[in-house]
ABC transporter ATP-binding protein
Amino acid sequence: MSVALAEGNLLDVVDYRGGFRGPDGEVTEVLAGVSFGLRRSTLTAVVGETGSGKSLTALSVLGVQPRGFVRTGGRMLFDGEDLFAGGPRSFERVRGNRISLVFQDARAALNPVFTVGHQLIDVCRAHRRLGRKEAEQVVLDMLERVRIPDPLRRMRQYPHEFSGGMAQRVMLAMALVSEPELLVLDEPTTGLDVTIQADIMDLLVELISSSGLTACLITHDLGVVAQTCQDVVVMRSGTVREIATCEELFTAPRDEYTRDLLAASRLVEAR
Ligand SMILES: Nc1ncnc2c1ncn2[C@@H]1O[C@H](COP(=O)(O)OP(=O)(O)OP(=O)(O)O)[C@@H](O)[C@H]1O
């Protein structure tokens, strides 16, 4: 599926292709021409069955594809600049800075030997020119914004002292402390209790709308998509099957695969 580049998109993924090299040296394509755009200040969901290429696409936006992945074509236009054309340096310049990633396993992403405050302050100072005291204040404010109770005490604690939901809030704070323009969220609430998932999604929606962020949410949960997202990209087998506004997708899906996906999700809900 091809898309016209829309004026004003923060990110355009254009005919992005790639795969993994097998023992015979041949590349087996798992992304077979992915194209979609992210409108500014909009939350876009990327949905699709397991193995459809959602995570690989998301990781590629940050230039952190898994070892063995080979790009065979396509462009990644961030704010008009083709990140691939500039090589690894282009990705290094924007990663963690203008583009942040939150993924599923928050505690695995935190370093167990440093306090949470120490890690957040380090990230803050790596991306913003702030003195230690100023960075501490920014981190404290951010922990409040992600609704961590008693943030000053929490800053002195280690990751193992945080529950899964609280650790995910810390990851959100870490992603936001550099004031990114684009936030990529890869299954950010999978593995958490249902009520905590809902809390985190509420928080995300509030942060996104209050800060004008552009965000891309990879998820299996169509219920979450219906409640939170404005745009939806449906992927299957390394291709984009449908791009629609959330309203269009749920009321008048155009693609047969989208209709199957919606029907399967309703079956799960009905159980
Ligand atoms: N490191 C790897 N080595 C080989 N193949 C891989 C690797 N990572 C992903 N793949 C393959 O690439 C394809 C796309 O994977 P990807 O993780 O992007 O799917 P996904 O849509 O995010 O799935 P899920 O919803 O299960 O996370 C799959 O067929 C997967 O098996």
Notes: Residues 20, 30, 48, 50-56, 66, 68 surround adenosine-5'-triphosphate (CB under 6 Å). The mean pLDDT is 91. Residues 110-179 form one domain. The radius of gyration is 19 Å.
